[in-house]
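Need residues for this backbone.
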């Protein structure tokens, strides 16, 4: 099995990309989240390549060995979507299956919505559709409250590294020295500018909540019911959620079926925490090989 690592120009931004498997196999793109790199997917790269897939696993912009723009607007979702579309073009692909975890799942949902012609199949791990997650109830709001600290420039940069990245260690349920995935994250985030670049994904795409005036007091408030935007995803989609995830509830994943007009499949992994590709590597790899098989229904 051939494995290469190279920097790829995706249209003004350069991403570090691992590519594995036969060059003419069905393509799969693996998108990591915060605060990760392409190395999150090491086990899945091996499994999918062994199953005959051509696998692309990039460090997304701001992470790992990829470019780290200093302009916050450069991390707006439309630019991140353009990076993935540009990667497909650069590697001579007209479409691929797309797998995302954490922010990579948000990006995968966005890519499938903006460019349905590029996404043959979609797998979202941990994170349901953003429109569904926003309406997933109080438990989800509480579980995701940590994001508020990430949005304040400078605050998370001071807090996260304290006590040897205590917050990350607690989220992983381990220690830097006995959890390889956590040790890799800490090493990556310790590079100059890496933590701020990673946090830019939050700051460029999420706004701090603003106080809401009573309806009568809102200037120019509409008297009619707003039209709900459509978020339909027509390709086959598999959602994967783990019971030990401290940040995301099952409801925000299972509810995502409502925005999928194509075939929907849901898989629940018992016992694993948030970082499913590492903490349930074998189980997730088997699910991916099954769902992404060329003859899968």
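Answer:
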């Amino acid at each position: 099995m051939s494995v290469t690592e190279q920097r790829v120009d995706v249209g003004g931004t350069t991403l570090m990309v691992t590519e594995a498997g036969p060059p003419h196999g069905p393509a799969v793109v693996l998108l990591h989240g915060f605060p990760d790199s392409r190395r999150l997917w090491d086990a899945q790269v091996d499994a999918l390549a062994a199953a005959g897939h051509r696998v692309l696993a990039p460090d997304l912009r701001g992470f790992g060995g990829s470019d780290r723009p200093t302009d916050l607007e450069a991390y707006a979702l439309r630019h991140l979507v353009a990076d993935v579309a540009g990667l497909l073009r650069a590697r001579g692909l007209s479409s691929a299956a797309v797998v995302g975890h954490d922010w990579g799942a948000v990006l995968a949902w966005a890519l499938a919505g903006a460019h349905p012609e590029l996404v043959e199949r979609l797998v979202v791990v941990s994170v349901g559709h953003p429109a569904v997650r926003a309406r997933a109830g109080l438990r989800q709001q509480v579980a995701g409250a940590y994001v508020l600290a990430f949005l304040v420039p400078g605050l998370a940069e001071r807090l996260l590294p304290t006590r040897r990245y205590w917050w990350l260690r607690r989220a992983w349920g381990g220690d830097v020295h006995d959890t390889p995935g956590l040790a890799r994250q800490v090493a990556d985030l310790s590079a100059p500018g890496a933590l701020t670049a990673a946090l830019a994904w939050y700051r460029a795409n999420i706004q701090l909540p603003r106080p809401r005036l009573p309806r009568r007091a809102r200037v120019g408030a509409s008297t009619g019911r707003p039209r709900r935007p459509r978020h339909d995803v027509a390709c086959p989609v598999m959602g994967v959620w783990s019971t030990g995830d401290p940040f995301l509830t099952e409801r925000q994943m299972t509810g995502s079926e409502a925005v999928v007009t194509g075939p929907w499949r849901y898989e629940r992994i018992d016992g694993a925490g948030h970082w499913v590709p590492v903490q349930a590597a074998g189980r997730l790899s088997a699910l991916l090989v099954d769902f992404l098989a060329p003859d899968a229904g």
